[in-house]
What we know:
The complex is a heterodimer.
Chain A lengths: L3 E3 L3 E4 L5 E7 L5 E8 L3 E8 L6 E2 L6 E7 L2 E6 L8 E8 L9 E2 L3 E5 L1
Parallel strand pairs in A: 2-11
Antiparallel strand pairs in A: 1-3, 3-8, 4-5, 4-9, 5-6, 7-8, 9-10, 9-11
Chain B lengths: L3 E2 L4 E5 L4 E7 L6 E7 L6 E7 L4 E4 L2 E6 L4 E6 L8 E8 L8 E3 L3 E6 L1
Parallel strand pairs in B: 2-11
Antiparallel strand pairs in B: 1-3, 3-8, 4-5, 4-9, 6-7, 7-8, 9-10, 9-11
Amino acid sequence: DVKVTQSSRYLVKRTGEKVFLECVQDMDHENMFWYRQDPGLGLRLIYFSYDVKMKEKGDIPEGYSVSREKKERFSLILESASTNQTSMYLCASSYRGQGGEKLFFGSGTQLSVL
Amino acid sequence: DQQVKQNSPSLSVQEGRISILNCDYTNSMFDYFLWYKKYPAEGPTFLISISSIKDKNEDGRFTVFLNKSAKHLSLHIVPSQPGDSAVYFCAASARPTSYDKVIFGPGTSLSVIP
Lengths: 114, 114
């Protein structure tokens, strides 16, 4: 079974803190994605990566950065956390060339910024 | 501006009856459509997909219909079961560009009443 593991289930941070969200997948997938889920807005793409050290902005990249030093690991970084970044963060991965089918998601990290 | 829309935030259906979840999209470049299902405290899981060259795809109790001219798709669940109670996300992608980027709708919460 494909496994996408997010390091924390719940996280509480203070405004202005630097926050790291980690994601690891064990299926040798080329593509990795970070989404945030908010009520009424669905899943919105923050950043994605199609190869090691490669990254592309999604629809809402402002206030975020990412790092992909190894194929299996994709990190989301909040440089200076703000209250409007309180959200459920979901990591996903897929094989390249599958046209978006069968994204495999982690269980999510619920981040609260106080 | 949302490219994938699900205008019903919630839906209640009696067990054994048909559930119909609707989705509209605006981007005519989308050529692959997916439905994901999400239970609380879990990541979304892939349910069923359809390519733009088809107008129907069936998998057991789940059928997706695509009307390209109307830019509309729907997911039919027959018969509905209590275990189908979840949030359903419609999603779309445009191959081969955008490195398999997937755009999600806001979701519809389905409750199947025993």
